[in-house]
Amino acid sequence: MIIGVHTSVALGLHMAVERARDLKCNAMQFFWRNPRSWARVPLSKEEVSLFKGARKASALEIAVIHTPYLINLSSPDDALFEKSVELFKKEFEAAVLLGVDFLVTHLGSHHGKGADSALERIECAMRRVLELSVARGKNYPVVLFENSAGGGNTFGSNIDEIGRALDAADRAGLSAGFCFDTCHGFAAGYPLESRADVKALATLIDNKVGLKRLRLIHLNDSKGALDSRVDRHEHIGKGKIGLKGFRAFLGMKEFKRLPIILETPKETEMDDPKNIKIVKRIVEEQPNG
Ligand SMILES: [Zn+2]
Ligand SMILES: [Zn+2]
Predict the structure, then answer these.
(1) How far is the CA of 263 from the centre of ligand 1 (A)?
(2) How does residue 289 score in pLDDT terms, banded at 50, 70 and 90?
(3) Which ligand is nearest to the CA of 105?
(4) How many domains does the structure of the chain reveal?
(5) Which of 49, 103, 158, 172 is the most buried (most CB within 10 A)?
């Protein structure tokens, strides 16, 4: 299985690779710069070569950059949309330079203007990303749209919206994919309690998005209840999804085959190894491996 955690780059991008290795992970996700800031110090040549060197020496199969939550690709506000597109372009350029596999982003909020307004903005944003010179060689990471927990006017909390956003990206000429976050999905009203629930979810994703476009799983338990629209991650098995839910989810071949990134809380040094161990155990316990 391919599994990793969201890793801090506080000590340098290459040190995040070291952390993934210490955790015996073959995947990792990170924010390449401060996710709470609009400012971006460009990558230095040294940072890029240290990162690539560390990655080459590791068993890393998948590296993922997550864009900052500041970005609102659905915003009807011209100034915020403009800032968002500019920042997203910098994230995309960094992802190309570092040679990561996926660039995960949320779709933001349409502030009550509705889905069509959001889709128009997303299509426009993706068109502008493809104008970047780094996009010319087609050798760029796959952009993944992540489902959100919902609440307010966020776009992309339901699977249908994700499918429509991916179609909008297609119209712009960008073949994007889907990152399903279990905490967000559960908080947005998709139950994960039984095999039947998980099967229904897989069927829904296949109908609205296409399972081929589902490329990554964010595996998180949820502090919030089903349909609570609360985005608060919990340790695997300790939240409202619970071990039973994760056994059902990871028992489904449609999900088990995908790379997994954990974004569970990090209160102590032991939290990541503990959560990883639990997930590995659940997968090993499955009757057909
Ligand atoms: Zn996310
Ligand atoms: Zn997530």
Answers:
(1) 9
(2) very low
(3) 1
(4) 1
(5) 103
